[in-house]
Amino acid sequence: MAEINKVAVIGLGYIGLPTAAILAANGLTIKGVDVSQRTVDAVNAGRVPFVEPDLGAFVAGAVAQGTLSASLETPEADAYIVAVPTPFNADHSADLSYIEAAADKIAPQLKGDELVILESTSPPGATEHMANRILAARPDLSLDTLKVAHCPERVLPGRVMVELVTNDRIVGGLTPEAAEAARGLYSNFCDADILLTDAKTAEMAKLVENSYRDVNIAFANELSIISDKLGINVWELIELANRHPRVNILQPGPGVGGHCIAVDPWFIVAAAPEDAKLIKQARDSNDGKPNWVVSKVEKALEDTGSPATVAVLGLAFKANIDDMRESPAIGIASRIAEEFASARILAVEPHIEELPKALQDRVNIELTELDAALELADVVLLLVDHDQFKMVPANSLAGKRVIDTRGIWDRPGSAAGDVAAINGMPEEAVHAIVAH
Ligand code: SAJ
Fold this sequence. Notes:
Elements: E1 6-10, H1 16-25, E2 29-33, H2 37-44, H3 55-65, E3 68-71, E4 79-82, H4 97-106, E5 115-118, H5 126-137, E6 147-150, H6 160-166, E7 169-173, H7 176-186, E8 194-198, H8 199-230, H9 234-241, H10 264-271, H11 277-304, E9 309-313, H12 328-339, E10 344-348, H13 357-360, E11 365-367, H14 370-376, E12 379-382, H15 387-390, E13 401-404, H16 415-421, H17 427-432
Helix pairs in contact: 1-3, 4-5, 8-9, 8-10, 8-11, 10-11, 11-12
């Protein structure tokens, strides 16, 4: 196969853009492709249209060097990396339409010996589906020369630029030659092991990794509900249990968000509905956790008496990012606004300028600065453990009903100790700190 100098990265989102930028930083010429004019313009101006530490410097540098540019059109290239969304349909099966659209744009550009990589998280068989789509449009080509592989991304949002380099990678080829070629491309920036397999195993490995995490978070979430019922502080419980050398329980929260862990396990369930029982139960448990949080708010509002003001701290799907996709916090904020119509909801999210669309129609919810929200609130509902919230002085919670779904204050040795200890704090406020 010809040497790879020019790479087209299709989809300049949370994965595509970092991958494009790091390849460009390593000397390749990268053409980024996106359907959004706004994204294309931002990248061509050297800007990143979302928050990801260190990515800005990579993109600005590569654009200034002329090694990275973006366009709406798919160009000719030596290699293509498809990093488009794979949402799920109403029945939880995967929606492959973005992959199909990318394949349709790549097909006319091919000469025959290029490398086409699917990075998008996909159900088993999706890489083959993409290849079949290309070959149907280009019957003059075949997998004897065209190389098609799946290289699932595994980077953690917030640490993408580090983990692109340090995480081991799995590369699954439709042919061994495709896997080898993909390994060659990723070795431009990946310092860790690049492990070769077939495409279906690589697809499944990605889904299994995220399902493993989902199942373990579901366990932690179940423990938080049980502990609440039994009057046990779940954060202390987990800390203690984790002192066992072979126990490592994850952290409970208000539910599981993001575009990966809340989505990918469904692809396994859809592929083997009769057998994926534990995986499905974990999805259902994690999806059900927001109901439990809303019931906690209901109880706090009963105690407070209405009309009350509720500060909702955090809307992102996890700490220190601006990503709102599948965020349980947004669903919870929306439901509180709807179910407790007389309550005033003050949403605090330091990473955004305006309320997400899903909340804009709610008349009783407003985006508020942290200090103002804490001052006005009767009930403080902590949904995301952003660093800013960890700095909240314990005395600004005094006298309020506090529901700490992430355990940043409500854990022994952390701010909760301070909250409980502050002078002049009414006894009932101390008891109102909900242990779960
Ligand atoms: N969460 C908890 N408790 C925990 C850990 C996470 O409630 O102990 C929640 C988070 O708050 C969030 C959700 O789970 O709502 C997912 O967050 P995350 O940090 O576990 O994962 P993501 O979605 O940011 O990234 C995951 C990672 N997968 C694994 O760790 C196995 C990442 O490596 C993948 O690349 C990414 O999915 C992806 O793109 O698939």
